[in-house]
Amino acid sequence: MNRRSEAGGIGYGQLALLAVLLVLLFVVRHYTERGRVIRYDRVLMCSACNHIWGGNLDTGAQFPVRCPKCSQQAGGFAYRCEKCQALLPFIPQPSAMPICPKCKSTDCARLEEIPSGTSP
Ligand SMILES: [Zn+2]
Ligand SMILES: [Zn+2]
């Protein structure tokens, strides 16, 4: 015989525990939201005016994105050339790779933070 423990659904004790857990989750979330350091999800760069800014992009965002400075649809991800440290905008396209405009190197890494000295 297959004996199931506590047959007949969830007891009051379990319900109370669940409620406490939910409240805890809410409180923890609340705190982390408030205390979190604001970091830009994406560092973007305009291929028209070289403006660098940070933005939260949707996963379905269409490139090129609109530049907040010159208002042109010319924004891509900001990349840095590993060879000569030049910054370059890269607009994601199928079978396209970021290439450094200075030394033509393809050894480029996406910027994770806005470089100091540039206004956001
Ligand atoms: Zn621009
Ligand atoms: Zn380079």
Task: Characterize this entry briefly.
With 120 residues, the chain is of the alpha+beta class. The protein contains one helix and six strands; from the N terminus they run H-E-E-E-E-E-E.
Q: What does this molecule look like?
A:
- The structure is a single chain.
- This protein is of the alpha+beta class and 120 residues long.
- It has 2 domains: 6-36; 42-110, no CATH class.
- It contains 1 helix and 6 strands, in the order αββββββ.
- Strand 3 (65-66) and strand 4 form a beta hairpin.
- The longest helix is centred in the N-terminal third of the chain and has 24 residues, at 12-35.
- The termini are far apart.
- The mean pLDDT is 84.
- Bound molecules: zinc ion (2 copies).
Portion in beta strands: 15-25%
Shape: elongated
**Mean pLDDT, as a whole number?**
84
* Unreliable spans: none
Look at the helices and sheets and give the structural class.
alpha+beta
The helix/strand series, from N terminus to C terminus, equals HEEEEEE
- Largest sheet properties: 6 strands, antiparallel
Rg, rounded, reads: 24 Å
What's the number of domains? 2
For the termini, the CA-CA separation is 68 Å
Number of strands: 6
